């Protein structure tokens, strides 16, 4: 599809409104609506044609038109016209798999579990039933989509929401599976059918948009981002929905944008102004939190989207737009240095398989631990797949569980022959029998450790910054030794006297270590390949034990001694390096420091901006810069150069600071 250039500042304006609420849009003032958006530095607003309740908000004879909407009010059209008068884009929202109006009138269109129950919320729950796209519902929806495309032609864009794969045992889905020779009793067949059905309807709807509005943006939301290689044929760009307080957490966006940006499609981040999640009416997050979330998007070369929900009577919440205005004023001021910028990276981090088919991957696993660790260490990296391009990365990391088939083994061997380096951990690079696939690893493996908890004794080569003791490793590792051909041990495994169980235990936690190291290696190096015996990234994501991070950092230092950037800042400060090419060629270092605090069992809140003073930065640059300054303030920064490294001291970082080298 045609690749658009996304505007930088968007509002995603939800309007999921119950049919039991009267006076829909009764207080809507088109001029006030658009001018509020303009004053808040907004460039695009996603407005609603159809919501999760299944109701329509434009002039239509369709019975699904919201019953509380005044007869002469075309709310969608009024919003689009008003926004266009102010030069603001107005892509249109359509709910796909959630449609309570259709579900109530056609229960046979609702997806069914293998046991016959509905997929989604039950009859006594406040929530959504999930529609079956193999049923006539797909044609019902297509008629609504076509009416929107005809009435608003050409549309600025269509945002299709709730588009995940649905395994259904409804009558229509069962018939479709059997026509394809699939067995509905087999879970893998139901999954395959659901995936094919999603691809089919996305192709259908994106084609409908292109035929009427060839320049429009098209996005299908709620898809697992790991499937982008397949899904992007139907979409113009990627929008990463990530409300940190709504269940996504503060690592979800930076984790997934590092993967999405490796594709040839623009990326947009999406957070919201709510204290918690969508439609948290009366909930406003602190200004520092929203600034943090938008600054993360800017630092990762993504456009910005802030979610809101229009109250039923149609008047925007002034406090919400006062909050948004301050944050988007900062984004607009940053735009000369963020526009058309691209990330600069050294490391390719393979995405672990956990969560491949999930829209919201649970925190605490390998991917979360690896991204959190490398972010805290200030490394510049992308998240990649086995099919991703490997050229350009100085180091590849295969965390914990990356299976290496013959094709990937060949690619990795060629990568190593070209001068690259590899860091593997846990079972990565091992086959089903736990035998090394890559002979370059230089290890011999003798199965999994019989001990759940063991200890690591660091060798001198990787002991920098590590207290001299045996450090606990909470996750079970493999038993490995160095093989022939120059492989050597970097760290040793110290085993406990026994595993803790009902038969024998000692004190309150794991059994203490024996005084002598075992004959097993915790880390082995052969040439430009290092293997760590433990799933160290999952261990860090689950337990946050700092020796795990030290182990990885010191191994990276051996494999990649010349890191791109070093910043003397707290571990929870985030650093990214971006670059603008062409006439405005320059390098930008983004430093973010928004210390968030866990204030409930599940909620991290950033309320205060705590300044950092005299922050030392060292950046590898091929050419010496003419000048260095802070942006957008244009404050000059003294610097020195030596051996391809630019050293500077940033006077102060208050939340988000860009340091520009020209």
CATH class of the largest domain: Alpha Beta
Distance N to C terminus: 35 Å
Largest sheet: 9 strands, mixed
Low-confidence stretches: none
Looking at the structure, what is the overall shape?
globular
Widest sheet, order of strands: 11-10-12-13-20-19-18-15-16
Return the domain count.
Answer: 3
Count of helical regions: 14
CATH architecture of the largest domain: Alpha-Beta Barrel
CATH topology of the largest domain: TIM Barrel
Number of strands: 31
Helix content: 25-40%
Global Rg? 27 Å
CATH superfamily of the largest domain: Glycosidases
Mean pLDDT: 96
Report on the structure:
With 662 residues, the chain is an alpha/beta fold. The two termini are 35 Å apart. It contains 14 helices and 31 strands. The model has no long low-confidence stretch (mean pLDDT 96). Helix 4 (137-151) packs parallel to helix 6 and helix 13 (536-543) packs antiparallel against helix 14 (546-559). The protein is globular, with a radius of gyration of 27 Å. 26% of the residues lie in helices and 23% in strands. Strands 11-10-12-13-20-19-18-15-16 form a nine-stranded mixed sheet. An eight-stranded parallel sheet has the order 5-4-3-2-1-8-7-6. A six-stranded antiparallel sheet has the order 9-22-23-31-27-28. The longest helix is centred in the N-terminal third of the chain and has 26 residues, at 187-212. Strand 27 (628-631) and strand 28 form a beta hairpin. It folds into three domains: 9-97 and 133-165 and 217-339, Glycosidases (TIM Barrel), CATH 3.20.20.80; 347-559, Class I glutamine amidotransferase (GATase) domain (Rossmann fold, 3-Layer(aba) Sandwich), CATH 3.40.50; 565-661, Sandwich (Immunoglobulin-like), CATH 2.60.40.1180.
């Amino acid at each position: 599809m045609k690749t658009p250039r996304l505007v930088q500042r968007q509002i995603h304006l939800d309007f999921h409104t119950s049919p039991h609420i009267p006076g829909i849009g009764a207080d809507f003032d088109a001029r006030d609506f658009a001018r509020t958006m303009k004053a808040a530095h907004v460039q695009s607003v996603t407005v609603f044609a159809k919501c999760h309740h299944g109701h329509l908000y434009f002039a239509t004879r369709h019975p699904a038109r919201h019953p509380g909407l005044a007869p002469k009010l075309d709310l969608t059209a009024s919003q689009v016209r008003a926004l266009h008068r102010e030069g603001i884009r107005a892509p249109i929202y359509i709910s796909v798999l959630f449609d309570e109006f259709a579900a109530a009138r056609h229960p046979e269109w609702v997806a069914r579990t293998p046991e016959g129950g509905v997929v989604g919320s039950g009859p006594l729950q406040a929530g959504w039933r999930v529609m079956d796209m193999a049923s006539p519902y797909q044609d019902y929806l297509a008629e609504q989509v076509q009416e929107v495309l005809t009435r608003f032609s050409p549309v600025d864009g269509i945002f299709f929401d709730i588009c995940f794969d649905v395994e259904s045992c409804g009558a229509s889905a069962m018939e479709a599976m059997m026509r394809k020779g699939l067995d509905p009793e087999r879970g893998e067949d139901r999954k395959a059918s659901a995936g094919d059905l999603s691809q089919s309807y996305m192709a259908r709807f994106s084609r409908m948009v292109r035929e009427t509005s060839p320049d429009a943006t098209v996005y299908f939301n709620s898809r697992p981002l790991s499937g982008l290689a397949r899904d992007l044929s139907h979409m113009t760009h990627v929008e990463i929905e990530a409300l940190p307080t709504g269940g996504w957490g503060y690592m979800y966006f930076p984790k997934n944008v590092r993967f999405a940006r490796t594709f040839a499609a623009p990326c947009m981040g999406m957070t919201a102004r709510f204290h918690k999640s969508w439609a948290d009416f009366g909930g406003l997050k602190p200004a520092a939190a929203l600034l943090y979330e938008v600054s993360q998007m800017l630092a990762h070369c993504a456009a910005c989207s802030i979610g809101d929900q229009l109250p039923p009577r149609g008047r925007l919440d002034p406090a919400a737009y006062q909050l948004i205005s301050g944050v988007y004023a900062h984004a607009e001021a940053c735009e000369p240095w963020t526009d058309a910028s691209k990330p600069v990276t050294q490391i390719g981090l393979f995405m672990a398989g956990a969560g491949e088919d999930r829209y919201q991957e649970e925190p605490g696993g390998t991917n979360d631990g690896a991204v959190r660790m490398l972010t805290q260490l200030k490394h510049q990296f992308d998240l990649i797949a086995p099919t991703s391009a490997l050229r350009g990365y100085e180091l590849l990391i295969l965390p914990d569980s990356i299976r290496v088939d013959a094709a990937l083994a060949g690619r990795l061997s060629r990568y190593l022959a070209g001068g690259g380096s590899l860091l593997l951990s846990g079972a990565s690079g091992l086959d089903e029998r736990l035998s090394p696939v890559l002979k370059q690893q230089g290890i011999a493996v003798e199965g999994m450790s019989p001990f759940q908890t063991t200890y690591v004794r660091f060798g001198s080569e990787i002991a920098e910054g590590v207290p001299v003791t045996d450090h606990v490793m909470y996750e079970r590792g493999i038993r490995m030794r160095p093989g022939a051909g120059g492989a050597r041990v970097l760290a040793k495994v110290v085993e406990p006297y026994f595993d803790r169980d009902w038969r024998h235990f000692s004190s309150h936690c794991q059994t203490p270590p024996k005084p002598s190291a075992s004959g097993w290696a915790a880390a082995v190096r052969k040439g430009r390949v290092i293997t760590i015996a433990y799933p160290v990234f999952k261990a860090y994501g689950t337990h946050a034990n700092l020796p795990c991070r030290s182990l990885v950092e010191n191994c990276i230092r051996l494999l990649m001694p010349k890191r791109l950037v070093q910043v003397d800042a707290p571990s929870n400060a985030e650093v990214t390096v971006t670059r603008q090419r062409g006439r405005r060629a320059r390098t930008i270092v983004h430093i973010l420091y928004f210390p968030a605090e866990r204030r409930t069992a599940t909620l991290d809140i950033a309320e205060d901006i705590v300044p950092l003073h005299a922050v030392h930065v060292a950046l590898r640059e091929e050419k010496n810069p003419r000048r260095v300054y802070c942006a957008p303030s244009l404050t000059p920064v003294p610097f020195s150069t030596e051996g391809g490294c630019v050293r500077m001291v940033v006077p102060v970082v208050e939340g988000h600071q860009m340091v520009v080298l020209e």
